[in-house]
């Protein structure tokens, strides 16, 4: 991995901090090298009284690992971080993001995905 995509010790620590879930949903970000696109699949979110994400249909807590596959509500794509951010935050109303920390996180991740796309490095969502 290039130095551009590596996390510092401080970043690794910050990645493990507690954050509240965005009630508007969450995104799984990937890159499509063949089409040269950043991809962001948006999933709906329901949050229980304990602040845990639950399946909106069943009310079951969604596990971080080993959970049953869910269907994305929609998929956003863009050739650059700026393009995909404009789609998410300026062209969609209401935006599928309702929290500033979530929006900032997505912006950082889209930049990392764009760098990976341009450098040929692997992209792993933080």
From TrEMBL:
Pfam families per record: PterinBD-DUF4346
DUF4346 domain location: 21-126
Protein's recorded name: DUF4346 domain-containing protein
Superkingdom of origin organism: Bacteria
């Amino acid at each position: 991995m290039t130095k551009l995509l590596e996390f510092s010790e401080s970043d690794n620590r910050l990645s493990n901090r507690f954050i509240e879930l965005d009630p508007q949903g969450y995104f799984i970000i990937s890159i499509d090298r063949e089409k040269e696109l950043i991809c962001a699949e948006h999933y709906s979110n329901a949050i229980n009284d304990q602040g845990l994400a639950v399946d909106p249909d069943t009310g079951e807590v969604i596990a971080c690992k080993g959970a049953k596959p869910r269907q994305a509500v929609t998929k956003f794509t863009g050739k650059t971080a700026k393009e995909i951010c404009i789609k998410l935050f300026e062209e969609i109303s209401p935006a599928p993001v309702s929290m500033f920390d979530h929006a900032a996180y997505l912006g950082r991740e889209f930049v990392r995905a764009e760098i990976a796309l341009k450098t040929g490095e692997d992209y792993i969502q933080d």
